[in-house]
Amino acid sequence: MNAFSSLDHEFDIDGDTLHEECGVFGILGHPDAATLTALGLHALQHRGQEAAGIVSFDGQRFHSERRMGLVGDHYTDPVTLAKLPGNIAIGHVRYSTTGEVALRNVQPLFAELEVGGIAIAHNGNFTNGLTLRRQLIAGGAICQSTSDTEVVLHLIARSRYTSTADRFIDAIRQMEGGYSMLAITRTKLIAARDPTGIRPLVMGELDGKPIFASETCALDIIGAKFVRDVENGEVIICEIQPDGSISIDARKAGNQKPERLCLFEYVYFARPDSMVGGRSVYVARKNMGINLAKEAPVEADVIVPVPDGGTPAALGYAQASGIPFEYGIIRNHYVGRTFIEPTQQIRAFGVKLKHSANRAVIEGKRVVLVDDSIVRGTTSLKIVQMIRDAGAREVHIRVASPMIFYPDFYGIDTPDAHKLLANQYSTLEAMGKYIGADSLEFLSINGLYRAVGGKDRDAANPQFTDHYFTGEYPTRLLDKESEKTGNKISLLASNG
Amino acid sequence: MNAFSSLDHEFDIDGDTLHEECGVFGILGHPDAATLTALGLHALQHRGQEAAGIVSFDGQRFHSERRMGLVGDHYTDPVTLAKLPGNIAIGHVRYSTTGEVALRNVQPLFAELEVGGIAIAHNGNFTNGLTLRRQLIAGGAICQSTSDTEVVLHLIARSRYTSTADRFIDAIRQMEGGYSMLAITRTKLIAARDPTGIRPLVMGELDGKPIFASETCALDIIGAKFVRDVENGEVIICEIQPDGSISIDARKAGNQKPERLCLFEYVYFARPDSMVGGRSVYVARKNMGINLAKEAPVEADVIVPVPDGGTPAALGYAQASGIPFEYGIIRNHYVGRTFIEPTQQIRAFGVKLKHSANRAVIEGKRVVLVDDSIVRGTTSLKIVQMIRDAGAREVHIRVASPMIFYPDFYGIDTPDAHKLLANQYSTLEAMGKYIGADSLEFLSINGLYRAVGGKDRDAANPQFTDHYFTGEYPTRLLDKESEKTGNKISLLASNG
Amino acid sequence: MNAFSSLDHEFDIDGDTLHEECGVFGILGHPDAATLTALGLHALQHRGQEAAGIVSFDGQRFHSERRMGLVGDHYTDPVTLAKLPGNIAIGHVRYSTTGEVALRNVQPLFAELEVGGIAIAHNGNFTNGLTLRRQLIAGGAICQSTSDTEVVLHLIARSRYTSTADRFIDAIRQMEGGYSMLAITRTKLIAARDPTGIRPLVMGELDGKPIFASETCALDIIGAKFVRDVENGEVIICEIQPDGSISIDARKAGNQKPERLCLFEYVYFARPDSMVGGRSVYVARKNMGINLAKEAPVEADVIVPVPDGGTPAALGYAQASGIPFEYGIIRNHYVGRTFIEPTQQIRAFGVKLKHSANRAVIEGKRVVLVDDSIVRGTTSLKIVQMIRDAGAREVHIRVASPMIFYPDFYGIDTPDAHKLLANQYSTLEAMGKYIGADSLEFLSINGLYRAVGGKDRDAANPQFTDHYFTGEYPTRLLDKESEKTGNKISLLASNG
Amino acid sequence: MNAFSSLDHEFDIDGDTLHEECGVFGILGHPDAATLTALGLHALQHRGQEAAGIVSFDGQRFHSERRMGLVGDHYTDPVTLAKLPGNIAIGHVRYSTTGEVALRNVQPLFAELEVGGIAIAHNGNFTNGLTLRRQLIAGGAICQSTSDTEVVLHLIARSRYTSTADRFIDAIRQMEGGYSMLAITRTKLIAARDPTGIRPLVMGELDGKPIFASETCALDIIGAKFVRDVENGEVIICEIQPDGSISIDARKAGNQKPERLCLFEYVYFARPDSMVGGRSVYVARKNMGINLAKEAPVEADVIVPVPDGGTPAALGYAQASGIPFEYGIIRNHYVGRTFIEPTQQIRAFGVKLKHSANRAVIEGKRVVLVDDSIVRGTTSLKIVQMIRDAGAREVHIRVASPMIFYPDFYGIDTPDAHKLLANQYSTLEAMGKYIGADSLEFLSINGLYRAVGGKDRDAANPQFTDHYFTGEYPTRLLDKESEKTGNKISLLASNG
Question: What positions does the domain Glutamine amidotransferase type-2 occupy (chains A, B, C, D) (predicted)?
Fold first, then answer.
């Protein structure tokens, strides 16, 4: 999800969007650590709107605040920030799957270890989290949350290494999946990225103090400099030295594979003003539109973005095709978090609660709707109907990414596979008919690869993570396989 | 304010925006009256986010719900809607000036009259409200709110006419200013627009039942047909007849003057997908940008809208100039109503909490920022700085409306005149220097008139209300004049 | 209701208690006016727990805070009190009948009159409020609340007298019923009691500044001196003079009748530590128990009060009878305002949620339960069962007031007459059998009169108001009679 | 604290009361497990008002609800109870020391063990909790809360025994201190009481299903039968068998010492209608008053209880002395949880916010105030002043327990020793003078022993826990001793 579509999550009547599960931010050695973390998390809010947490360390004690709601709902409050003193802090924003809305699962998680306290937060998902959890429990560990972060804490606590850094790396090595992880101890800020580099993580610097964040937009908001991407399989340990200086020790966890960033960061999740893997997300999206215009041209009068996700691609399509770009769909921003469970009558108005057709640019026109992606298609169907009701002569849909066939296991919350539009109909025609469009086209996988990385997909060594389109997963899926054997843990359902 | 800038109100750190005070909606004879009113108000939310109220009549009793907050916060709730039974309803959304945040002032207001109950809601402002209030109090009336709507209720109650409709018209005739007003009685829905037609009001129809709303977007959301604009100085009385049919009686209040719609509805307030005075707001805004490109061209690399208000004009400017349109400023939608009173530290981040520069399209470029209007200029200053920080080579500002010099008295909440940018500096150069722009240009008054109405301003009989630019007020300002004499009423300060 | 039974209202599952509608407090000329009013209202909280309001005047403006909830929930807050500056204040606590829970009806009410602002609050009820309301509406007045206080404001506003005091008296003269009323203007604090003196009102003094309150306990809490009772039919006008001194002008409204205080103030409503009509409420209640012991003796082992209302009478009964007094019923104080709408399952536990039997003093004993009054008898039934379950050998009920047969119209919220126990069964035996008691006796009307006033009831000129027992109303009941003619006003149902 | 003083905690301006930290309730095999647990906790509310939690098991999953606030605030709600399905449940109410108000610490705590899930709740305190925590952390355990319950979970998880019951007993054996503990697994309800039996725990039965609760009043509310006290050092394991029957297995943990119930349960904490250790709390308190009358007689006119704690003792004193018992102090029940942080001005009114003198029974009298205990004496001082202000001729204080000199380590939150009245003055005269009483006397330790158990204290083997009076602790105090060595863990400060 990006800033162009930012309130989608909160009023997703049809369950027709993808959700990213988290964003992280950390800073070491800065007197305003918690305030800067709050600002960084605010910039990362598009990565998770359900809850936000910050842990700081003030030289004596760790301080933790975890709250349901937006960063701006709590962490701009002087009273709350005053409870987070110290010059070391990490924070986390999260989206949570239904039924797990537990404050108990809100990160960062903290534990007292023999070597001292540690707080951890991560973005992404472990593909062997459940497997490890079972082993830990068998070994006498107690698990109080359903969060995989707790598993990491246990691995660190039980590691036979002595230093926190070594224990952290020892733990990380055992975790499989796609994740970016931050940790703080009494003197350190540690950052790690998964061996394949599926989830992004960047390093920045403000006033000479190291910062890590999921995206560069979190650096921009506080005026921090971008230093570099954390590399896949890398662990960076920043530590305040006795003389007040900060040492930075970048290591390899020893489990690297070729980097494969998640393509959906470019298609949908990352903010358009962020640089991900050294590439402008906005430019990548415009390129998707440009390539789409080449691959799937159509004779039409007007290019209309499906707000807000489809906007950059629509602009690219318009510039490449020479067809005028117009705001044919107007967004009602007041459909927000507080839109309470509406009556059935009101739910029936569906997409109109959020979008309205701008008849002045649609009536009598051949309209091309450009969207970033199609998940279930239920929203597309309603938008097409709305555009037709406003008098469009023709409605063509152009989607700036390939068809989605497969579920994700690295932190993206996807619907059941059989609910995906691409799995419900076997031909473009059938899909288009379902949606009610005069034509429907998707960007090719190579079109997407070129838009992002400039080159076609290398089938032998794909440059990006793309399993939702291709079915080729970049890691093994241990938990998923063991699930088939049915040995499920009866976890706690909890709300408080 | 429009849907392109919709959350501005809630996080307007600098007091650098204009606020419209209200939106109204009413429907007669429909079994889902309250639900449809809630939907209509939701579509009009951009006209007022502070509070919303609905009054319905169920054949026996009137029912009233008035709440602080957004429509979606309360009026989509089955429980709340169940408290508003009946097939007659009117509703109101309001923005309120600071210090008057009293539930007591939230409309619609209800009164029991000899002829039966009546509920009233209006958008706009009366220029002789205080004068009439003083006369009423001298005549033994009691005033419990500081709302002018209460004055209208008194005038109706004290009218010597017998029918409600005649009493309503009698009251309306005594009111001066700019307003659109709706009322319901046990059988009627009454709509009225001020003699000059400063504030908009449209008539629609759903399933044969009459509807009135501030803007056409409130008709669109419920799939109602647009019938016509209520005319200036017109009173339309719709009544359920004993046989269930609905009579519609359109009268003139007898005080008409030539119509002069408020230009700011086109520049900023109305939603771009609304038709106001028969004209597409979106097309008018694009025309402003086109005219601006002609009047104030500049050699540049990229046209960047200041979101969200400047977007249509920027698109028009780009199309007219041939310079590429790019999203150089990204909006953070999560700066919302709940952004609590931030620490001073966080306030200092100002505009960055809401906007960020999209460096990829700005760095090294000559940038033209297109905005809809400039009030105090404090926000513009910060945006220019942000764009420069992102590496722009030049920053030019083009404003799609003329300079604002004068206060409004018809429902727009303007800052003190001496705080308006146009009153602080005598030359464009000085203003531009203050803001930090390489150049600054405003659309001419004729350029604006042509964008909206196709013709230059007729100095003898201006086609629109434009006093904020010209100082020429369309009505006399009785309260304002009497204020000079100092006879002020010591009104109640209240919060509950 | 008294402090011995104070949380009854909030968890009255069976609607088996009587509710008093209000308490008032006012002070003039004291720099801590609002704070002292808050404390006085806190002491009067037993007279109304639904809402509380305070209006103050600071020399320039009136300030009003009205809130649902307890005094301690809002009015001890420094922030709230800071919104009520000035040295003149009145306040009000209220209980409201179901369905009228509207902030709009919370007192004090304020109106701007020609002579300046006025705020009014009253305890009690007008028996011609609706009749006057109809006349006012016919005369062009608008009524926005369903509160009779608004009627008083209209009468004051329309009075042909010039001074506020004369207007107030003019208005009061037109009102019939039982009430105590306080008003403030820019310089005055006015107190009035109804012609028959049904509702109590006392005058006190603190630091030389006049105070009025419903009961003396509100004087005690702030260390104020009791000066005297306001007399029935009296209006006392206190005014700050230009030199800062305070004038006190006591007048008769000219409509006095012989004083008849409401007996239920002694039986149940007033706090036991209050002096009402110069008599200790606590002593009166003990006397009721003493007289009851004489009138209705019983051979038993233990006297058990039904908490909290029956406690003083039980103590009197025990002392007069020589039977030991024991706490056989323990109260759970945590059944409070926040006990949310419970499941049916939990409701079934009924009286046990609030009371439990103290088996150690009940088992095997002949128990006398002493209660202050019986309304519907539904609670008594459950308590008897509970006492039997705890092993009592016999259970006798002694009620320290006569049987209730008739509704009240002076501010006590009584159930429908046919739901009163005394109207459901024609004999004591039948009532006792319904309740499950071995015997049931009520105090005689003369026993009650002697307990309170020392003398038997004077049938020709009863010394107290006692219609709920006798059917003899101290005033005519104009609204009630006109109700039969069916000319009902269709008032607004409102929640906000 | 008992039901006679139940709201003291919430408005304890002076920190002049003792606080008990918890109450527990559990039930096995009943279809309404969570509802009955909610009712039981409601009856135990006097043992902890800060937070309440319930965990249930529905055959598949554990369900947990933990909330700040009273039981009646949340757990009577159908919506909340519906989230706690199943026929096994335990619950917990808690009082928490300042600064640890963390939802995270609210019990019951849950953990997934190899043998399946387990939830635990306890009342009391471990005297070696910190010592064990240090050992566990050194062994690779992670501690996420500051609650000792977490330590028990770790000990169970790490036990080398295989069955849950054996693991539970293994863990219990390592814990020292005073506690009553309940646990549930997928089929079991386990109850345990500390070796010395400091904290109470009773076993009951409803519809043939076993129940455990801190006090018998929790059985009474649901109509359950009392079966017996759980013995000190006993572990009772109830298990649902495959055939639906319930097995009950009572074992000794093997660490018993002679039973010594906490005397403060009798003096102050337990509800008067509870049976603790087979003795009526109410009767014990009356006996304390009777013994006090014999030990410390005084010539006086009236015996006045200090509400609510002193009431039963005052009644005993009155009966033994023949001096009349009167309600000389009236309680304002509306000083409750929601009394928000008051202004300094209002705080100054102190004790008057909660209590008022009933002048009618005090004026001109020689008054004996009977209180249950004196902690700091700050409240007593104010009450004496209030009684004098109401005109008492003499004021004598009689305290129904001995002087408190020493802190508690078994779950009672005591002020710092130097703040205790008994440690501030060396003679009764000096204490009495400080408080302003004409005389001050305390019950002797033998007087208290006889009131509760019928016999004098056996110095060699005291029958009860009485260290707060005597300094003789019933267990060793491991954590306290190790504290002196300074090896403190830097625990997390957290609010969410």
Answer: 22-241
Q: How far apart are the C-alpha atoms of D66 and D333, rounded to whole Å?
A: 27
Best residue of C221, C273, C352 to probe chain D, by most D CBs closer than 10 Å: C273
Structure confidence by residue, pLDDT tens digits, A256-285: 899 999 999 999 999 999 999 999 999 999
A–C contact: 3+ Cβ pairs < 8 A: no
- Tell if the CB–CB gap between D140 and A67 is shorter than 8 Å: no
Catalytic residue numbers of A read 22
- pLDDT value at residue C14: 57
Those residues whose C-beta lies under 8 Å from the C-beta of residue C12, and which sit 6 or more positions away, are: none
Q: What is the pLDDT of residue B114?
A: 81
| DSSP E strands, A258-297 | 261-262, 275-276, 279-280
How many CA atoms does the CB half-sphere of A352 hold within 13 Å? 23
Q: Which domain holds residue B48?
A: 22-260
- Residue D112: which of A64, A137, A153 has the nearest Cβ? A137
Question: In chain C, which residues touch B (CB < 8 A)?
Answer: 53, 60-67, 83, 103-104, 106, 109-114, 116-117, 133, 137-138, 140-144, 150, 153-154, 157-159, 186, 489-496
Same domain, C245 and C303: no
The predicted pLDDT at position C2 comes to 35
Residue D384 resides in a domain:
yes
Q: Are residues B244 and B307 in the same domain?
A: no
Residue of D nearest to C348 (CA): D222
Domain containing residue D297: CATH number: 3.40.50.2020
Regarding whether A100 and A209 lie in a shared domain, the answer is yes
Q: Tell me, what's the ipTM?
A: 0.91
Closest-CA distance, A362 to chain B, in angstroms, reads 11
Chain B residues with CB under 8 Å of C142 CB are: 111-113, 141, 150, 153-154, 157
Is the overall model pTM greater than 0.95, yes or no? no
Whole-number Cα distances in Å, A488 to A415, D61, D157, D463 = 21, 11, 19, 51
Query: Both C26 and C62 in a single domain?
Result: yes
CB contact under 8 A, D43 and C273: no
Which amino acid, one-letter code, is at D25?
Answer: F
Same domain, yes or no: C320 and C449: yes
Closest to A358 (Cα-Cα) out of A339, A324, A336, A330: A330
Please state which of the ranges A425-439, C291-305, D128-142 shows the lowest mean pLDDT: D128-142
- Same-domain check for residues D101 and D138: yes
Cβ contacts of B496 on chain C, cutoff 8 Å:
53, 64-67, 103, 106
Q: Give yes or no: residues B237 and B386 share one domain.
A: no
Residue A85 belongs to a domain with what CATH number? 3.60.20.10
- Once rounded to an integer, what is the mean pLDDT over residues C131-143? 90
**Residue C364 CB neighbour total at 10 angstroms:** 9
Is C354 part of any domain? Answer: yes
Q: Mark yes or no for CB contact C327/D311 under 8 Å.
A: yes
Examine residue C187 and state whether it is found in any structural domain, yes or no: yes
Chains with 3+ CB–CB pairs under 8 A to D are: A, C
Among candidates D61, D104, D157 on the partner chain, residue whose Cβ is nearest the Cβ of A140: D157
pLDDT band at D12 (very low <50, low <70, confident <90, very high): low
Asked whether residue C114 is assigned to any structural domain, the reply reads: yes
Q: Tell me if C496 and B64 make a contact (CB, 8 A cut-off).
A: yes
B290 and B251 part of one domain? no
Query: Which residue, among A266, A285, A119, has the nearest Cα to A200 in the 3D structure?
Result: A266
Give the count of beta carbons closer than 10 Å to the beta carbon of residue A127.
24
Q: Give the total residue count for chain C.
A: 496
Listed residues C226, C260, C294: the one ending a domain: C260
Q: How confident is the model at residue D9 (pLDDT cuts 50, 70, 90)?
A: very low
Number of structural domains (chain B) is: 2
Beta bridge partners of C247: C239
Q: Do chains B and D touch (3 or more CB pairs under 8 A)?
A: no
Single out the residue of B150, B52, B143, B142 nearest to residue B103, CA to CA.
Answer: B52
Mean residue pLDDT across chain C: 89
Domain endpoint, select from D200, D228, D260 = D260
